[in-house]
Amino acid sequence: MKYVDEFRDGALAAKLAAAIAREADTGRGYAFMEFCGGHTHAISRYGITDLLPANVRMIHGPGCPVCVLPIGRIDMAIRLALARPDVTLCSYGDCLRVPASDGLSLLKAKARGANVRMVYSAADALALAQKLPEREVVFFAIGFETTTPPTALVLRQAQALGLANFSVLCNHVLTPSAILTILESPEVRELGTVPLDGFIGPAHVSTIIGSRPYAFFAEEYRKPVVIAGFEPLDVMQAIRMLIRQVNEGRAEVENEFTRAVTEEGNLKAQALVSEVFELRRRFEWRGLREVPYSALKIRAPFAKWDAEAKFGLEFVSVPDHRACECGAILRGVKTPTDCKLFGTVCTPENPMGSCMVSSEGACAAHYNYGRFRDIPVVAGTAP
Amino acid sequence: MSFAGTIRKGYVRPLDLKHGRVDLGHGAGGRAMAQLIAELFAAAFANEHLDRGDDAAVLPAPAPGERLVVATDAHVVSPLFFPGGDIGCLSVHGTVNDLAVMGARPLYLAASFILEEGFSLAELARIVSSMAHASRDAGVPVVTGDTKVVEQGKGDGVFITTTGIGALPAGRDIGGANARPGDAILVSGTLGDHGMAIMAQRESLAFDAEITSDTAALHGLVAAMLEAVPTIRVLRDPTRGGLATTLNEIASQSGVGMELDEAAIPVLPQVAAACELLGLDPLYVANEGKLIAICPAEDAERLLAAMRAHPLGERAARIGTVTADANGFVQIRTTFGGRRMVDWLSGEQLPRIC
């Protein structure tokens, strides 16, 4: 594949790995968090851990929108779809399997008669509403800053068209507030139990918000940030740049992903988002609990297309299993295998916590791609 | 296909195969059903067993020492017609391949149709004709069948279940539990073509890509492979769940691990690009005309040559090795140089693909 394979070149990766090994100071450890699920996926999918020296550790951050979506928000969608036979609830495919209360998921609600459909974009959901005027089409919108502008656009289009049978159940969340929560967590800030030497900054999110919002973390918290693309060579290069910053005592925002990210980002998209959305005072994140000013809600002029207002939906918080370590894993305090539930009752088929929900989550990525590392190879043939 | 041939020719208005539609009468057991069977199914599948018009086919016993092999496969693919095939030929290939990968010689098929009221007879005729062609090409006749009609909204046009009978020569033992550490793992060609052809065809995912389903009957290829290398231990067609899921099945049946080389796994560039776009992994996408073969390492090159000499195995490749690992882990050396697991598919990647 042209323009893709170039970023997955094994020979270049080997050279980069050698450079990283050369530059990493063997007298110390390095712990970097890749915020985005996309990076987590690339690291697991391409086996990048195998190419890093033992003293460079990657912490998988909370940047997987499906993972951090609280159960209570999915419950809202399921309750609506089950209670109102005239509602067609549509969302992205990976949302449909997320387990919610009462052993339900949107997919299981569908099996119980709810009208649930998978769509590939907000625009598909809007088109569905136009095609099915007799039905109430509700788009369950999730995602970070990358998927927010398309949702804003369909809301504006619905308003322009006067499309009365379309609405959005908005769950859009913001990257910088989540990073801040991690930096403010006691383990990182006060106790110093979690060495966190820097961040690989988001790829697609940064195309929208630009590189500027991260300057605060570099300056205030003295944490280097390198914005990187989602291809495995991008990740390797970013790790090398982070190691250099640490070695040189710098804490700056650097941009590895210059082919797509600028300092100010996409101003048109930002304007569109602020026209349609405003900040929520607080929003629950699965694994991080309540994070202030970390999510968006639909502004009053668009209230007719806000499913929460339109159908009077109430959020009820649902706690995770008591033994679930997702919060600690997201902050880098623990690894998936530290969790008692991992691989026993919590599996990709039956996820108990946020990190197991999508393949971009830390636990699911380790389960799907890396668990062979934990379990010694047993030679011989099983009965 | 009972009732076939029981209506008197010349006294019945022929089926309207242009504008007609399936109605509940076609499944009611009366004259309409007899006519549908006679004019459509019996005419298309004509063979000495079906032509008798009895409730079941009477078949000769296999040769002495041979054993019978039976497989059944239900087909619910949506859309019914896709680039490279349709539900008709797919329903023949699916069952023929299930027999072929046991090392059996496919002999006969039985077919049952669940038709939805309102389904176009013209489309049904196209499907039946494609199925008849596939059956003739494969040399495996449809010797008995059944038709039911369900009310509108209770089906999706047509569902087809086929059951196949094959003969297994004495002494032949091919099965998922036979893989041994050190064995070579081969595939017969590019992976993911069928699943991505279906995906491309679905209305919600219209993108321009020349991807055609690989649906094909594999018993000819299997015969050529077994002639060249009788020591083949495992054969399996990686349908739903793709290569990854099928290898995990074999690994767990045999109590072994596997190590694959990602760079050696053949994937068409357009399939790779479509998968990239949709966030799918071609290793988990369905195939309908490919097989996985596992044989002793010393026979691998001979087997590969035999596969490549057959039109359905031109792009065959040796993709990995069976390892001693009772955990049954399938691992892959990525093109990037790292290692990871290739796990069972969790959830479904694409629904209704076959």
Automatic annotation (TrEMBL), chain A:
The keyword GTP-binding does not apply. The keyword Iron applies. Gene3D superfamilies: 6.10.20.100, HypD, alpha/beta domain 2. InterPro entries: Hyd_form_HypD, HypD_1, HypD_2_sf. Keywords: Iron, Metal-binding. It comes from the Bacteria. Belongs to the HypD family. This is Hydrogenase maturation factor. It comes from Aromatoleum toluvorans. The lineage of its organism: Bacteria, Pseudomonadati, Pseudomonadota, Betaproteobacteria, Rhodocyclales.
Automatic annotation (TrEMBL), chain B:
Gene3D superfamilies: PurM-like C-terminal domain, PurM-like, N-terminal domain. Residues 53-167 form the PurM-like N-terminal domain. Residues 180-332 form the PurM-like C-terminal domain. Pfam families: AIRS, AIRS_C. Signal peptide: none annotated. Belongs to the HypE family. PANTHER family: CARBAMOYL DEHYDRATASE HYPE, HYDROGENASE ISOENZYMES FORMATION PROTEIN HYPE. NCBIfam families: hypE. This is Hydrogenase expression/formation protein HypE.
